[in-house]
Structure prediction request, 182 residues.
Amino acid sequence: MRGPLPPNPNQGINYEEQRLKEIWLAGGCFWGVQAYFARVYGVAAATAGYANGTTQSPTYEEVCSGRTGHAEAVHLRYDPERVTLASLLRHFFRIIDPTARNRQGNDRGIQYRSGIYYRDEEDLPVIRAVMAEVQAQFKDPIVTEVQPLINFCPAEAYHQNYLEKNPGGYCHVDFSLLTQYQ
Prediction:
């Protein structure tokens, strides 16, 4: 059970003047991933969407068909003065099973694969270091893909902040992990 959504520590922070960085994370259904990361201190914005597929503007139905190759992902804009990429990635690996191919929780399909997508090549050494750290905790190989971002399309409005609007909605993410590691 995911438990109630904890308070958002980013409310009231003006991130407009900050030099924000970006990363895109795919960890199964984007509802829980978005809600979780919106509550990580230093995350200025978390947008649910579709990453690294074969079309530029897919619909949810097209992505769910598996024909577009997109992953449900969350675009994070974060303040590196408040939270590091390594910290964000450690949070990410706490809420997913990185050894599960094309699934998380009860969700199955290519759109539910786990992935880390980046634009800044300087992020790659950090990503690789955290992945090595996490791999040491697992017997099975990590199947989380790491790729440059090819494309990202925000999901439809009804998917944005879904769990705030639908508190009883399904979610594979355990929000108690937020308070254990903040």
In short: The chain has one domain: 21-164. The first helix runs from residue 30 to 37. The chain has six helices and eight strands. The helical segments are 30-37, 60-64, 85-95, 124-135, 162-165, 176-181.
